[in-house]
Amino acid sequence: MLFSIIAGQAKADIVPEQVEAPSKQIPDAIQLANEYLAALTARDYGKLSRFYSRETKFVDRTAKKTLTGGSDILTFLRRIHVYTLDYSFEVDHAFHSGSLVVYIGTYKYKSRGDLFGKPGQNIELQIPGVTTIEVDLNDREIKTHTDLLDYDTMRDQLAAQ
């Protein structure tokens, strides 16, 4: 290679080829689970209904509540979301094993206080937890959505508001 000195700096006359960094491929199971979570937190019931079948299970292990079937799950979500002003899930870590996707993160809620026995107030909660979603890639459906949330942290936050 030929180099020239310009104002005390070496400069290459030949520019090496730019090599692009390999793009990260998101596994199909995580992509489908991400689409589902986006519809859930956006409260897009039309999209959500396409993810559920009669066999889909929605489990809140901490609250010991299990719902089966898209109709029951959507009815439950609509009832809860009436009180919800804002809702998001910040994922700290996601991984998968086959069709099982595991998310570790924090659910953030802004809700009407009457859901928690505090009428006339707005409540803000940040609840850490683990959400697992078992997907069916062939039918693009959710088999099971399971939440394990830290309700002790939620109770502490409610007591402070």
Task: Describe this protein's structure.
Residues 34-135 form the SnoaL-like domain. This is Nuclear transport factor 2 family protein. It comes from Ferrimonas aestuarii. InterPro entries: NTF2-like_dom_sf (IPR032710), SnoaL-like (IPR037401). With 161 residues, the protein is an alpha+beta fold. The chain has a single domain (27-159), classed as Nuclear Transport Factor 2, Chain: A. Helices cover 26% and strands 42% of the residues. It has four helices and eight strands. It has helices at 28-41, 45-51, 70-81, 151-159; strands at residues 3-6, 9-12, 57-60, 65-68, 84-97, 100-112, 122-136, 141-149. The strands form two sheets. A six-stranded mixed beta sheet has the order 4-3-8-7-6-5, with helices on both faces. It has a two-stranded antiparallel ribbon with strand order 1-2. Strand 1 and strand 2 (9-12) form a beta hairpin. Helix 2 runs antiparallel to helix 3. The protein is globular, with a radius of gyration of 23 Å. The N and C termini lie far apart (69 Å).
